[in-house]
Amino acid sequence: MASVQTEAKPIVDESKALGWLRQMMLIRRFEERAEMLYQKGNKIGGFFHQYSGQEPVAVGSIGVLREDDWVITAYRDHGHALALGMTARAGMAELLGKVTGCSRGKGGSMHFFDAEKGMMGGHAIVGSHIPLAAGFAFASKYRGEDRVALCYLGDGAINQGSVHEALNMAALWKLPVIYIVENNLYAMGTSLVRSSSHQDLTIRCATPYGIPGHRINGNDVELMAKTTLEAVDHARAGEGPSFIEAMTYRYKGHSISDPGKYRMRDELDSYIKKDPIVVYETLLKQRGWIDDDAIEAMHEEVKAEIEEAIEFAEKSENPPLEAVYEDITVAPFISQE
Amino acid sequence: MSAFSYREALNQAMTEEMDRDDRVFLMGEEVAEYDGAYKVSQGMLKRFGPRRVIDTPISEEGFAGIGIGAAMVGLRPIIEFMTFSFSLVAIDQIVNNAANVRYMSGGQFAVPIVFRGSSGMAGCLGATHSHRLEAWYAQIPGLTVVMPATPADAKGLLKTAIRSDDPVIFIEHEVLYHEKGDIPDGDHTVPFGKAEVRRPGKDVSLITYSRSLKPTLAAAEELAAQGVDAEVIDLRSIRPLDLDTLIQSVVKTHRAVIVEEDWPYCGLGAGISDRITREVFDELDAPILRVASADAPIPYNKQLEASMLPSVPRILAAVNDVVYR
Ligand SMILES: Cc1ncc(C[n+]2csc(CCOP(=O)(O)OP(=O)(O)O)c2C)c(N)n1
Questions:
Q1: B-chain residue closest to A157, CA distance
Q2: Which of B30, B31, B58, B59 to mutate to test the interface with A (most CBs of A within 10 A)?
Q3: pLDDT for B234-283, tens place per residue?
Q4: A–B: how many Cβ contacts below 8 A?
Q5: For chain B, what is the largest distance between any 2 Cα atoms, rounded to a whole number of angstroms?
Q6: What ipTM was predicted for this assembly?
Q7: Which residues form the signal peptide (chain B) (predicted)?
């Protein structure tokens, strides 16, 4: 039985809340279906990292952004892209390597980009995207804008030097960047206890740099939104970066090839029992904003949207072979062969 | 002789060397409790315990440097990079420290360390996870670079690497891990700087290494059917290079094609071609050609990716050019 964990006092209006619920459902369904395509049709190649269980982190935080803000993340990027409003079509087509995909079939699961939506990419080298976020923020400040950059990273990524170099400069120069660590307790098969000298990542990353740190339940979509909004306001006011440690949990193994045997079954079950989507459904029902029938209808609608996206992706073309040499440089590409 | 996979061969090499020498230890991401991202270190934690099989945080620069420091003061670390793409995070440590310490200290310190891990295109992993950086590392004086193509060489070269007093870049290939082959029994080692003639021939020398050996041998078979007798040479050692074997072969065949998976521009083949040309220019009946990957990052899409790799048709086309058919 799912229990309600968020404060009863809504921080959002009804239509926004229903939108967030739908987005979480969409992300969940997108990945469930993609996993089937991966395993059955051999249609998706390469690594495939699922976001299931962590949906409220992306949906809540992106939910308070402005359209001209930026978002950047690591390779577990499907959720962030969809939360930003990127279409399921563009995502599915990318997974199938099609030219209609969000990265024209050249990026794949780990490298979702959507310039129009401010999706600055999924990045597959752990730690390498973290300074880029500070770079977006630098540009904002340089040009006198009040746009902010949101950067997601994992608890494992915290151990890269790039994080600490970026945090130092972001704090030093008061850059409008918000780092959100999705602390799902594991980096591949390595638990936090075995990788971090201190388990409280806020103490490791916010305190030393004198920036606001928030360690919160990331599976509470509204708390995620509220905390991010605070950080966003802080950033827009020229007060510099913030650090949010969103406590969450991934349901699946690190990637599709990882059965996740290093975790106790009980541990996983205890999280599935408090599934954030079900929890939010329950909350919205209590507020009288939705009922069981409407929830069911929403699920069906999302399913249809994903099926349509799959159909679109399957019908789409592969990129032509000449595409190998496209988009390497802005100027006409001069081969060095 | 018994048949083992490339993965098992690597595991045997490490296990045997760790049995022999307590100074040898294995460190890297997921090498211990997870048994290795590609299961190369399967069972090693159980056998050697956490003192010698050590999981690290995702801190490539940090643990590469810790390994180099430990090597300077007498240990013999094996540092696993989950893939060599990630060694770029650690390249400062490898180039500025591992490769230079012996030289800069006037020979006072050796750095007996092995950096090993997978590399190359494995199938739809996109640009960041498919790099082949052999040409980068081969350029650095102070580093030894080896790239085995078979299980026997994987074991033999790795044992030699672990016993070496110099830093060794030991580059495995992701698609070779499950390949099986015979490995000589006992303490099997393979020396550095010795190429292997995999197929003798007299009409053209095909020079290759690592994953590209397979399509090169297949191309040689097709050529044989067409009446062209190709000699296939597997470099095994990228640095030091077995120039003697290459020259002997070219003196015999008068033609050479280099098959490499890295990028063409400033790639490994460029350096090898330069050496051969300078040594035996007069023996050559045709320019040395190179079949490398396309001069582009690696795309995710399967068809695009496949079109970039050295393949049998591309090798045949190059051979046809040098034999003027
Ligand atoms: C520089 C680098 N080192 C290692 C890897 C291999 N790798 C990919 S994901 C991962 C674990 C990262 O965990 P975390 O940052 O906690 O993110 P999560 O998977 O939990 O979302 C590792 C070790 C990599 N991609 N890049």
A1: B58
A2: B58
A3: 999 999 999 999 999 999 999 999 999 999 999 999 999 999 999 999 99
A4: 129
A5: 61
A6: 0.81
A7: none
